Amino acid sequence: MTKMTKAGAARGARNPKYMERGASTAVESNVAYRLRKVSDYVRLSGDWLDCGCADGGYTRALLQAGAASVIGTDVERRRIDAATERWPGLLGLSFIVAAAEQLPFDDETFDGVFLNEVLEHVDDEARTLNEIRRVLRPGGSLVLMSPSRIFPFEGHGLRVGGRKLDLPIPFLPWLPGRLTQRYMRARNYWPRELRRLVESSGLAIAAIDSVMPVFEVYPWLPNRLRHWYWSNLSRIEGAPLFRSLGVSTMIVARKVSERRDDHLAS
Predict the structure, then answer these.
(1) Which helix H or strand E contains 170, and what residues bound it?
(2) Number of Cα atoms under 13 Å in the Cβ half of residue 239
(3) Is 178 in a helix, a strand, or coil?
(4) Per-residue confidence of the chain (266 residues) as pLDDT tens digits?
(5) Bridge partners, 115 (sequence order)
(6) What is the pTM of this model?
(7) Distance CA 65, CA 62 (A)
(8) What is the distance between the alpha carbons of residues 93 and 110, in angstroms, rounded to a whole number?
(9) Contact predicate 145/31, CB 8 Å
(10) CA distances (Å), 42 to each of 45, 112, 121, 141, in order?
(11) Exposed, middle or buried by CB within 10 Å (0-12, 13-18, 19+), for 248?
């Protein structure tokens, strides 16, 4: 298995002071929008892993979208228990407690891995990406979505001392990391930074795109404005200026053959 480069490992060691587990983003409009983005680049078929599945909303959606089987993993047992109870006995769907850095699967088990707003919360980015590469079959795809620092709001809020602020913080992503890491509760990435991190695992980049916010869980936005935004999202997303301001970066990467891996490693 290709190892992370020293540069990649160093980037993976960059952690905010207050690392927290991520919350589910599986609200109805977000699931529909993000799965459409996935299907634009990857055929949803075969065996998939939803790594960091939270309540299992996306796990179920991947199965509905065409995957033959989907396993959802999460490090928190309460989430796996809730997901299992939510969809008991559904053919092709299962849930397992597991950390992203130590997946309990054989090599080359999956045709695709969905890593949706998870990498920014894991203990070790390098180990997570290496594990994903290990469990992918040759030609299999990783679909990764993680926060973009181009987006002007920090969606995880921040923490000052013992006080949490659970609000989008304007302009925090644009400030130097040396100033913000002591307050942040999750990582975020410049798109080029996220690309380098994925490439360091030995996966080959197939596509990079922006993921727009859907604003379904932003109660401070007027309903009329939210409705207008949803109705015009495709047009907004097609405009170069707005497209570059996506809330997250999506990277599609593929596991190449072992022979090509050896060439890349050399």
Answers:
(1) strand 169-170
(2) 8
(3) helix
(4) 334 433 343 344 468 777 777 778 888 889 999 999 999 999 999 999 999 999 999 999 999 999 999 999 999 999 999 999 999 989 999 999 999 999 999 999 999 999 999 999 999 999 999 999 999 999 999 999 999 999 988 888 888 888 888 888 888 899 998 888 888 889 999 999 999 999 999 999 999 999 998 876 666 678 788 788 888 888 888 887 777 889 999 999 999 976 444 433 33
(5) 144
(6) 0.87
(7) 5
(8) 14
(9) no
(10) 9, 9, 25, 8
(11) buried
With 0-12 / 13-18 / 19 or more C-beta atoms within 10 angstroms meaning exposed / middle / buried, residue 168 is: middle
Q: How far apart are CA 250 and CA 208, in angstroms?
A: 6
Query: CA torsion, points 163, 166, 170, 173, in degrees to nearest 10?
Result: 80
**CB–CB of 133/202 below 8 Å?**
yes
Distance, CA of 122 to CA of 116 (rounded, Å): 12
